[in-house]
Amino acid sequence: MSDDSKSYDGPERVFSGMQPSGDLHLGNYLGALINWVRLQDEHECVYCIVDMHAITVPQDPKKLASQTREIASAWLAAGIDPERAMVYAQSSVPAHAQLAWIFNCVARMGWVERMTQFKDKAGKDSERASVGLFTYPVLQAADILAFKGTHVPVGEDQKQHLELSRDIAEKFNRDFDAPGFFPQPEPLIQGPGARIMSLKDGTKKMSKSDPSDLSRINLIDDADTIAKKIKKAKSDSDALPSETEGLEGRPEAANLVGIYAVLAGQTTAQVLSEFGGDGFGRFKPALAELAVEKLSPITSAMRDYMADPAQVDRILEQGAARARDISEPILAEVRRIVGFWGS
Ligand code: TYM
Q1: Which of 138, 226, 229, 237 is least enclosed, having the fewest CB within 10 Å?
Q2: Mean pLDDT along residues 294-320
């Protein structure tokens, strides 16, 4: 056994993913996608539509491929440039599944049992959940490490999964006496966008599984729907404070101010210096206007991509070919390190 004293010294690479289950919402956009767009200027970026993760809960086979195209369309519309970043579907690159199996044999039951997302998603009847849902975070570690991903831009809800990825990378390096082989992927969880809350309950995360569509803004919503959802968003009867501390104990106010800040590219303090003292009667219309201004161009570009599935398919094929070129040599090395026959 080695002490893994040699640390990873390979190239930096950004990796992240999203599930093709349901519409993308403002949380996905402000928590992750907006950062992905920025990162492609500075790094090699790999962005994966995780259809294998999606089937850990039932999906309609007639819709999965078109949902995958829809996610790709949203990414492209938001500014992901497929000439620079790789955009592809997870199931079209075998390295994900191959490495996931090996990592299933590296990760410990106790580590995976601690994952709160499994407990939330499986609910009370966890005996009936799929085995895939249980090992979901192990596949996530394989996603990142099949590319030796060093930086992972995600929302705050993914923090625990990222910690598991780091533990798996470290244990693999140690168990197989391969110091520094896998990097310790670093989560990039940034600003108030990292945790966008439901518009109906500021203590609950904005989520595609919330039964109320009024709880979230979908990237595909038209301008009137966005304005209506913001108008109906839960708030309180006090004026906005002038200082950030004044938002404590006011989850709905904090959420709406946070959304404004990320959309405007400002800090919370800057937003409050403009709106402090105003009630929601003035703030909500300003937020609705800003949201429509920022999201409408994305929505309309997304509709254009969705109307041209052949173009989106070409982009996904090209992305998959590039992703295979990077991940196959890494998997060949993994097979050799593990000691598989023929490696
Ligand atoms: P998914 O599809 O559930 O979420 C995609 C991204 O959106 C972020 N997000 C949010 N951010 C802020 N506020 C919210 N309310 C909100 N809701 C969602 C998520 O944090 C995520 O960044 N397990 C991942 C998919 C995945 C992955 C990976 C990510 C699979 N393999 C490898 C990174 C690296 C997920 O839950 O996606």
Answers
A1: 237
A2: 97
Q: How far is CA 136 from CA 114, 118, 132, 231, 310, in A?
A: 13, 8, 6, 37, 30
Q: What is the torsional sign of CA 97, 142, 62, 124?
A: positive
Same domain? For 292 and 313 the reply is: no
Distance 154 CA to ligand 1 centre (A): 6
SS3 state of residue 188: strand
Range of the domain at 58: 3-189+308-338
Same-domain status, 220 and 129: no
Span 324-332, mean pLDDT? 98
Task: Tell me the pLDDT tens digit for each residue of 260-298.
Answer: 999 999 999 999 999 999 999 999 999 999 999 999 999
Asked if 275 and 319 sit in the same domain, the reply is no
User: Is the C-beta atom of 28 inside 6 A of ligand 1?
Assistant: yes
Is 205 designated active site?
yes
CATH number at residue 174: 3.40.50.620
For the segment 121-154, what is each residue's pLDDT rounded down to a tens digit?
888 888 999 999 999 999 999 999 999 999 999 9
Task: Indicate if 24 and 82 belong to the same structural domain.
Answer: yes
Q: Give the total number of structural domains in the chain.
A: 2
E strand or H helix at 116: helix 116-122
State whether 169 and 249 are in the same domain: no
pLDDT score, position 2: 42
In sign, the C-alpha dihedral spanning 114, 119, 124, 126 is negative
**Ligand 1 centre distance from Cα of residue 155 (Å):** 6
171 in the same domain as 60: yes
Q: What is the tens place of the pLDDT at every residue in 40-66?
A: 999 999 999 999 999 999 999 999 999
What DSSP line would sit under 125-188, residue for residue?
-GGGS-HHHHHHHHHHHHHHHTTT--EEE--GGGHHHHHHHHHHHHHHHHHTT-TTSS--PEEE
- Measured from the CA of 32, which atom of ligand 1 is nearest? 22
Mark whether 229 is an active-site residue.
no
